[in-house]
């Protein structure tokens, strides 16, 4: 089974990766799941002619992507799983769905940020987009509810 897990800077996406590693990859069963982790860097609109700004934005995005992939790699190593890591550029919603189609994924795993109805209406939801556009099943992993203090 080919599993694509989408991650970003959020704890919810790393929890989704952890969930996938713990529930979908079974080392005792040969071929249980091949896991690919994808991080999408969104294109950033920068005013024309601001070369120094463009360079600093690109550098910040590259550092952020490197940190996200590093955290995902460590999580995979803790579970003794070697997953393929990918960083791509574009609209996260579209690129995640495209990546799942390109690799012929059997399952797409995404985290939930828990946006309220109003924020989701204005910002849109990556997980909602994936559910409606991906050609494979989509698993949305919600983070555990925090315990009351």
TrEMBL record:
Domain of life: Eukaryota
Ranges in a coiled coil: none
UniProt xrefs under Pfam families: Usp
UspA domain location: 2-142
Protein name: Universal stress protein A
Source organism: Helianthus annuus (Common sunflower)
Higher taxonomy: Eukaryota, Viridiplantae, Streptophyta, Embryophyta, Tracheophyta
């Amino acid at each position: 089974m080919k599993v694509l897990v989408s991650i970003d800077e959020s704890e919810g996406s790393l929890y989704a990766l952890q969930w996938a590693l713990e529930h979908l990859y079974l080392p005792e069963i040969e071929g249980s799941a091949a896991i690919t982790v994808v991080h999408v860097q969104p294109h950033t609109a920068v005013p024309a002619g601001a070369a120094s700004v463009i360079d600093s934005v690109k550098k910040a995005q590259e550092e952020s992507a490197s940190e996200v992939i590093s955290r995902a790699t460590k999580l995979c190593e803790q579970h003794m799983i070697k997953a393929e890591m990918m960083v791509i550029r574009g609209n996260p919603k579209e690129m995640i769905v495209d990546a799942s189609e390109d690799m012929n994924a059997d399952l797409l795993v995404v985290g939930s940020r828990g946006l309220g109805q109003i924020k989701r209406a204005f910002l849109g939801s990556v997980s909602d987009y994936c559910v409606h556009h991906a050609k494979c099943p989509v698993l949305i992993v919600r983070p555990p509810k925090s315990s009351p203090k």
